[in-house]
Amino acid sequence: MRQLRQPRIVGPVREAVLIAALLLGAQPRAAAEPAGDRVALAEALFQQGKQLLERGDAHAACPKLAESLRLDRATGTLLALAMCHEVEGRLASAWAEYLDVIARAKQDGRPDREEAAQQWAHKLEARLSTLSIAIPAAVAEIPGLRVQRDGMPLEAPAWSTAVPVDPGPHVVTARAPGRETWSTTVVVDGAAEHQTVTVPLLAPDDRPRVPAVPTAAAGVLLDAAPAPRPPPAVLTLAVAGGLVSGAASPAVAAEAAAVHGRWGGALRGAWALSQREQQIDGGGTVRLGSVALRACGFRRFHPGPRLSVQVGPELLVQIDRAQGADLTAARTAWRTGWGIGADGGLDVPLARWLAVAVMASVDFAPSGWAGSLDVANRGEVLQPSALRVLVAGGLRVPLNW
């Protein structure tokens, strides 16, 4: 029989323990109840835990009560453990255990115990901290998605639901076949704290698999299955139309790129369709046409299941060709300039063999990095702009699909 005598606890838990002493009473055991050393050990642990709880040492009492409950799931032990967890500050655990006591009391025909546990659980509800794990629609559509909190699997109905949790760190993990595992730790500091964690879109796992080392068993060499081959390099060609900086001229752009896994490089060319012009003193006009070549490297990201973004550094070489109109002894002049900057791109697949491509380049190319452009001894004409920008959109075709 497990009965709590009048405790020596002071503070807000004293009233609960006094009521529990009246509610626990004698607990007749069922005929199928385990007997022998298991029950004796459970009883001894319960008495030790009860005494520690009465002295206010919940930290030492809770493990003993939990082990006693594991050995013999007596309702009195469960009630004592709920009270212990409440004293310890583990309010979510205490609340769940009070609810379990309510269900047991209904089965046992103990309305007094049921009513008391309901009151204690109700008092805790306003103090409970919660953690919600939000799964956006794009993430939920990933095949084989598995979400865990503190190692416990969470099925889809439990996603985006505020669940009571105890204070302390909580580890949220999301994984899926062919995707990188995502994990984060959320720390709940105290009572009535409500936090939400949003699982981001899991990036594709493009890492090559390392084959297992062959092992020997019973004198026979067992060869591991061959590892999957890393993804092959992908060669693509893109043709696009857009704008280049300066006179905001329309342009035609082309790009050849190679991608292996997440890394790649590209050679990008752009031809301005309209020419810059400058009037020369004494009559005549100089017209300037430009071709820009960009060599760039990039890192590819996948923010969406059908979306890829690439960014990286690039080197610019721009060739300008100037021709004079109505100028005596005017000859074609050439100028070469250098620049450095960054490139970016975005691909939206339409089919296995076709994608919509958006490309952008921003480069810094000061006049000191370019040669001079002198037409018919008129001096430097059509000074280059320091900022060179290309924005274009078109179609991309893989060459080895």
Explain what you see.
This protein has helices at 14-24, 37-54, 58-71, 75-88, 91-108, 111-125, 137-140, and strands spanning 129-134, 146-149, 152-154, 163-165, 168-175, 182-188, 194-198, 215-217, 220-222, 234-244, 249-260, 263-272, 276-279, 285-304, 307-325, 333-351, 354-364, 387-398. With 401 residues, the chain is an alpha+beta fold. The strands form 4 sheets. The protein has an 8-stranded antiparallel beta barrel. A 4-stranded antiparallel β-sheet has the order 3-2-5-6, with no helix packed on it. Strands 4-1-7 form a 3-stranded mixed β-sheet. α1 runs antiparallel to α6, α2 packs antiparallel against α3 (58-71) and α5 runs antiparallel to α6. The radius of gyration is 37 Å and the shape is rod-shaped. Mean pLDDT is 78; it is low at 3-12, 25-33 and 215-231.
